[in-house]
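Hi F.,

I've been meaning to write this up properly since the lab meeting, where we talked about keeping a consistent format for the predictions we share between groups. The idea is simple: the sequence comes first, exactly as it goes in, then the structure tokens exactly as they come out, then a line or two of notes. No screenshots and no reformatting. I'm using this chain as the first example so we have something concrete to point to.
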Amino acid sequence: MRDDRLEELRSQLEGIAEELAGIGYDKLKEAIETEDAAAAAEERRLGRARRSVLKAAALLAGAGDE
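Output, unedited:
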């Protein structure tokens, strides 16, 4: 039986991942427009955070169960 609290948390994590993607996109645009190395590094950091959040959401969904 699925726990509704875990499903809600999974959904919230997916929302956070979407927000991180949007912020990362903005940082990427900034990096391209201004040739700002710091913005490019920030975009990469946000990408890593987004992937980690998506991994946590997948674990809560049961993906990758062994």
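Notes:
The helical segments are 4-34, 37-61.
The CA atoms of residues 14 and 25 lie 17 Å apart.

If this format works for you, I'll send the rest the same way.

G.
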